[in-house]
Sequence to fold (653 residues):
Amino acid sequence: MKISKLAGILVAVIVAAAVLLFVVGIPSGAMTSAIQSRVERDTGYRIAIGGASKVSLFPGFSVTLNDVTLQNPNDRNPDSRLTIGRVRAELPLGSVISGKPHVSELTLTRPELRVPLIRARAPTASSPPSAIRNGRQIETVIDRVIVEDGVVVMANAADRVEDRIEGMNAEITIDAERRVSAVGGAQLGGRPAKYEIKAALPAVDAQPVPLEFKLDAPDLLPAPLAAKADVRLRGTLLQISGLSGTLGDGAFNGWASADLAGKPRLKLDLDFQRLDLGNPRAPAQPAGAPWSDARIDLSGLNYVDAELRLSAAELDLGAAHFAPASIDAKLVGGVVTAQFSQIGVYGGEAEGRLGIDASQPTPSFSLSGDLDGVRALPLLGGLAEFDRIDGKMQAKLALRASGDSQRAILSSIAGTAFVNVRDGEIRGLNVARMIRNLTSSTLSGWQQSGTEATDLTQLGASFRIAQGKAATADLALAGPLVRMTGAGTIDLGAKTLALKVEPKLVLNIQGQSGTAQSGAANAEPVGLGIPVMIEGPWASPRIFPDAAGILDNPDAAYARLRQMGTGLFGALGGGANSSAGGAQGTDNPLGGALGESIGRLIQQGLQSGGAAGSPRDATPSQPPSPQQPGAAPADRTDDATMNAIMKQLFGRQ
Fold:
């Protein structure tokens, strides 16, 4: 319903009421019927006045009507109507008598506009009756309109859906040059919003209306919105051309149109300099907090069809940044299909497809995508608040889920995923030190340190996901100092880990390759004698050797391992039964054959000579010079010295 047409109808009501009330006073039922007949004759709309009405002469001429209902008799949906608790108009008596009403102030108290939500488009839709009947047009002059406590109700009774815009208050002024200015506020889904509108009404309805619009909704928009455009209404087709504006500090331009006959059909094409699809003004969730159970309502997607094209030089999704980005999407019958390609993502590219089906009571989702050459740290940190892994990432995703909350969606994810990260680091974690610490105690948490890191050659895993649990059997980590293989499950809905891994220390100087040097049989990675469990919340899990009773009585469990002659570093650990460890076996689980093996490997590294501050310079004594009589060969180092170095390396006394 056009605003100008609505104003004309209301003024027709006021004029008819003013003339009749001025003569008769409080109208009887017959007089009310006369008002209704005259309004319907002049406007085509049916009006009902359910309450008392009156004329006041002091302090000025005014007309008040109570419980007014306005409805289009040709509308197929009986729920489409406007009701107003009270209509009060102040106008000079002379303008009423002359037939050219001039309303100085029109106040609408508790207006309620009911808009039916239509799930399917009808082949044809009835046009609203014109405000021109029998060759007569209602010429209206209104200086000021006040709306108090208005409500817009959008509902579909069959679907039991109802959305409300409440607390609508507005002050609208119209000057002599037909320039309109409106300021006001409302509650959108219980969230406050403020707006300003400026427009210049044309002399002819077919001409476009220049319009400026501002909206600030802190809980719904990431920043204040300001826009301007030329707006034209041709029948039921609303056209918006020359659209430009800013969303926060990002400018945009484009065009839009809306076919308002029955179920709305929108077309929108916008190009942004910078677009933020998150809401930085929303309160941040504490680290490690569970997924939200708050309901995500997507039912509104069923009551509009749309074709959208969004492009942005820069796109922010939460804390993740993409540049450039282009998205094409269609919405038909509550089903969204969105395609994105060649999106720039932190030095790499991404492409994929997103589907949302809101046509059923529980919405479902699908996502497929490829990432290539993307830097892992900023992407994972921005999307999942995971800021520990850095490097070049390749990933393939094929996922599906359903649910109406974060927790429900994450707990229902199914599909496959593959992730591979190369040439980077694990930040804040010293994996080699964690392995060393496991030889004497269980760990609680990741033992994070802001100053340490573990170099990463490759980290990869493939996952099969069902009911929100991602299972892998090929987790593999390789780096210059450590190796790790493993298997287990990541519970995405509960944010927990249940992994069994086998970590190893790499003892050769070419640890990147993972193969022993020729002729160095003892240069293979050295692992713990038993697997290691990683269990609990992924923000701070428990890490412990997979030994019986290790959590109930750690001291006794470690003692039993040493008595078994294996220790946490297996037979090379120099336990009681180690043949190479000699007397050191029971006191030094890292001595004996392990010490000799590590010593020989470090000796190979020292053969090339050490710079200042190198391990060779740090040894307590230097081997004799090869030029001195009785000197040892340059490629040999005292095993006791090497064992001493390794004791310091692994924190042993």
